[in-house]
Amino acid sequence: MKKVLVLTSSRADYGIYLPLLKKLRASKEIEIEILAFGTHLSKFHGYSIDGIIKDGFEVSYKISSLVLGDTTRDIANSYALTAQKFADFWNDHANQFEWVLVLGDRFEMAAAVAAGIPFNINFAHIAGGRLL
Questions:
Q1: Dihedral of CA 108/42/99/83: which sign?
Q2: Sign (positive/negative) of CA torsion 117, 59, 10, 68?
Q3: What's the CA gap between 1 and 132, in Å, rounded?
């Protein structure tokens, strides 16, 4: 059985993932684990991790790294903290997953992926930004 980790940082990416998550959950060949971070863990943003659980998914890991505020400095600090916490996570879990599924290009997801590069994580990336 192949183990896949799904990184979700917000209600927005989770909603896009949901049809795929349901198919993966039904698979006999794939075991999924979910890591929630970003606004999912923020009471200010509605603590949307509850929606994941309500949909019947288990959240295996949580990483809290969001700095409240939306100034450029707040975003930079959140990016740095997210990268630091994911560096610790990848150090402890790098070889546990066949693939790590990531979606989008928000700064939280970018930080999580950037921190995984030295650990040779097999990322599968869906729906990045586009040039206009």
A1: positive
A2: negative
A3: 40
Q: What is the pLDDT of residues 103-130, one digit of tens each?
A: 987 889 999 999 999 999 999 988 765 5
Separation of CA 25 from chain center: 17
**In the predicted structure, residue 42 carries a pLDDT above the cut 90:** no
| Interacting residues of 102 by C-beta distance below 8 A, sequence separation 6+ | 7, 109, 112, 113, 123, 124, 125, 126
User: Amino acid identity, residue 8?
Assistant: T
Tokens at residue 84, please? 């630091």
What are the tokens at 15? 């909603």
Query: Is this model's pTM higher than 0.70 or not?
Result: yes
